[in-house]
Amino acid sequence: MNYKKFNKITLLSILAAFFATILFNFIIDPYHVFNTPKFEKINAIKNHTINHGMSKFYTAKLANPTVLLIGTSRTAHMHPKYLQKYFSNEKIYNLAVPGSGIASQRNNIEYFIKHHKIKAIVYGVDFFAFNPTNNTPNSKEEGRYTDDFTKDYMDSLLSIRTLRKSIKTLGDNIKGKYQHLDYAIGWDTYENDYLHIEKDGIPYIEAKTSKELQMLSTQNKHFNYAPFKEASSIEKPLEDIEKIVQLCKENDIALHMFISPIYSEIVDLIYSREYGKSYHHWKNELAKYGSVYDFSGYNSITTDVSNYIDGSHYQTKLAPLMFAKMFHDKSVDVPNDFGTILTVQNIDKMLTTQEEIARQK
After folding, report:
1. DSSP string, 283-336
2. What are phi and psi for residue 124, nearest 5 degrees?
3. 3-class secondary-structure state, position 254
4. φ/ψ (deg, to 5) at 139
5. For site-directed labelling of 62, which of 55, 117, 207, 320 has its Cα 20 to 30 A away?
6. CB atoms within 10 A of CB 232
7. Which residues contact 228 (CB under 8 A, 6 or more apart)?
8. What are phi and psi of 122, to 5 degrees?
9. Using CA atoms, how far apart are residues 265 and 360, in angstroms rounded to an integer?
10. So what's the pLDDT on residue 3?
11. Would you state the pLDDT for residue 139?
């Protein structure tokens, strides 16, 4: 074989492999970017995305919702079906993104208000999302919000990492694995945890909670970042919240904000690790709106570990109670101490009582 023929065959082989990789990644579409047709045993199950934020952005665009659930991983586990009774005939999508900061959440809200006919937003404003380490969207996100999808498309077609994830995705489909996140509605299923809870009960939840508390106290994006202790550290995300409130007013969009019912031992952690100043400032600022439902603190729900998956994340069974309280639904039996509207009149007493309980432990 002469060198010219060898080089030609080598080049053609490389080009064939290159285009085969692109075609394979496009068909499998592990990140839900291209909305390729779904085929059972091939690409219907997609558990190997880069991150939920990227995938849910594209699946939410496809869903074309009129009502959005926004927030972090806590809100992500609220099934839209529990909200449907309060928004009949509306298309609800759970666009909550695990680990997201307020800046990213604001960008999503702005984008979907601009490009879709959004009528209402149900917004879980978790304290975790106000940590300064969580509030710098990366360049790929910024491109997304200006309708520049080039980087996402390149990552989804030309990356070796994507090829590996496509192969894993194909493997999951062949094996019949379950779907971790229902991208059609944006709901994080936590199916694996529920299977363990059904089998092992409270001991499993307690073990997961112990690990969660350890993680929260050692990771910078939670309660191991000294600047987050200062009230001034959350001014930027608080400004973003104000922008969201004003944007909804300007576009005649109903905004329903709430604070998630994190397990009471995490509230203990906030005080024991001296994040009380920023935590109190956060709630004081939210109280000024006079419409934010607070399901956190110490109540009959948050002190019962059986209501949780791992302490930080509550089970989806709490969603009907929270929505019933927020939408004044008397047909649902909700504990009287679960859910209080923050106001400038009650906030000082609430925070004083909460801190006293935490300090006594």
Report:
1. HHHHHTTS--EE--SSSTTTT-GGGBSSSSSB-GGGHHHHHHHHTT-TTS---T
2. -85, 110
3. strand
4. -65, -30
5. 320
6. 11
7. 131, 132, 133, 234, 275, 278
8. -110, 115
9. 13
10. 67
11. 63
Residue type, 277: K
Q: Tokens 């109670």 sit at which residue? A: 321
* CA 240 from centre of chain: 17
pLDDT at res. 72: 96
Nearest to 66 by CA among 86, 50, 48, 47: 86
Are 125 and 93 in contact, with CB atoms under 8 Å apart? no
CA distance 118 to 110: 10
> So what CATH class is 60-136+180-359?
alpha beta
- pLDDT recorded at residue 233: 95
Q: What is the pLDDT of residue 140?
A: 67
Cβ-contact 46, 29 below 8 angstroms: yes
Enter the tokens of residue 10: 């080598």
What is the pLDDT, as a whole number, of residue 8?
A: 73
Closest CA to 244 of 129, 159, 343: 129
Strands (E), 207-280: 254-259
Compute the distance between CA of residue 342 and CA of residue 358 in angstroms, rounded to an integer.
Answer: 19
Mean pLDDT in each 10-residue stretch from start to end of the chain (361 residues)?
A: 68 82 94 93 92 93 97 96 95 96 95 97 96 77 85 91 95 91 94 93 95 91 92 96 98 98 95 95 97 96 96 94 97 96 96 91 74
Amino acid at 17: A
Residue 206 tokens read as: 């307690």
Q: Quick one: tokens of 197?
A: 């809870």
Total residue count of the chain as it appears in this document: 361
Closest listed residue to residue 273, CA positions, set 315, 219, 353: 219
The SS3 of residue 126 is coil
User: How many angstroms separate the CA atoms of 304 and 300, rounded?
Assistant: 7
